[in-house]
Input
Amino acid sequence: MNFIRCPECGTAVSTTEGWCPACGESVRTAIEEAIKAFTWYAAYACYGEENKRGSIKKGKLADITIIDRNIIKNPPEDILNMDILMTIVDGKIVFEK
Output
């Protein structure tokens, strides 16, 4: 089980709960922010990798996962049921369904 700190009161909250039992504050992350955390922020944390990876731009390494549905427009509870169609790492297909 993973925990995060409530931004309002600092209570440790289970990431599966989605709200802080101490103050009632929502601790869920928006899907757009979660995607950025696993892409651009992760590349930035690797000391300057954001210039080479972490977003889709001409000249950057092609590390991308193709999913069968729009992860932003579908409800968060559907994410676990989405199928990975293809994964590309350094411009090479490493998985294809």
